[in-house]
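Request: Show me your protein:
***
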Amino acid sequence: MERFMPIGNEPGDLEETIEEKNRVPGEEPDYFAGMSFKELVNSGRGRKIPVVNQIVTSRNPEDGELYRAFFTDQSIECHYGDGRRAWKIEMEDAQQAEKVKEYFGQFKPDRDLVKEYYSGDKMKMAVVQSFWLVLFGSR
C-alpha cells in the first residue's frame, strides 16, 4: 500500500477536485444534485467524518504557507489554507500512532475547551510531511 497519497489518488478524487474548482460558490456538485438528505447518506457519496485526535494550524517553515493538519489513529492529513488537501500519510501500525501521541505530549492545546486544537509557530513541524516521514523511518 502506498503511504503518501497526493491529491487524485483516491477513486473519484481527481474528477471531484476538478469539478470543485469549476463550481460556483453555493452551487451543489453534480453528483449531489437532486438528492435528498436520506439519499445522500445512503449513497455513500458523502465523505465520512473521521474521529480527529489533534488539529493543527500553522505556517510551514519550508514554504511559509498556512496549513491545517488533522491527526487520527489511522492517518495524518494536511490541507492548504483554502481547504485543498496537500498530502496524506497513512499510519501503518500502532507504533507510528504512538510516535504522534508522544510528539503532541510535549505541547499544550491552545484552548481549554477544545483540547484537540493546536496552533502557532511552536507547531510548525507538525505540518511538514518530511518531518513525519523521517520520524516514522520512511526516509
